[in-house]
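Supplementary Methods S3. Input chains for the assembly prediction are listed below.
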Amino acid sequence: DAKTTQPPSMDCAEGRAANLPCNHSTISGNEYVYWYRQIHSQGPQYIIHGLKNNETNEMASLIITEDRKSSTLILPHATLRDTAVYYCIVRVTNQGGKLIFGQGTELSVKP
Amino acid sequence: NAGVTQTPKFRILKIGQSMTLQCTQDMNHNYMYWYRQDPGMGLKLIYYSVGAGITDKGEVPNGYNVSRSTTEDFPLRLELAAPSQTSVYFCASSDTQGRGYTFGSGTRLTVV
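Predicted structure tokens for the full assembly:
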């Protein structure tokens, strides 16, 4: 399974863009990059996913490098409610499409 | 639309006792998963299923059993509870295309 590497923690000022990096240098050509977040001990919440192209939805944008070895999740205007642990995951396409979680990045949004 | 429902939400077990954590989804998803999360750690995959009658081990299957008799239900069984199984357990489901990967709200289990 492709592994991901994320910084353990980051801070962001409220109202500013939060840019969360992720390295996944062993990703295979047909594996997707998924981002989830977990607030306190609630169930993880889906944010966004992508294969090659950049993606945007109402929550965030996902920028994937051309070689697909890294990606960045962008929260355009972070709020205090975005304080959470963010997980970058490479989803295997066989074996039931399971998500293998790493340690994630703990994002603290400060006033 | 309830999504993924887990019961119970909280449980305290004594060492050696057994119990079943229930998980039900109403989205007609073929794929279902069980994870555990220890304090301050990421989620670890215990077991998963790609359809009724088919299950497979994840990263940390020891001490657990699962069954999948219907598309909707994916119960997790602890036979001889140990303190090391104190954790929060999450059930999840998705369709075969990876869409709608949804988690339940979790079961907090303490083994004393």
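The first strand of chain B starts at residue 4 and ends at 7. Chain B has a mean pLDDT of 93.
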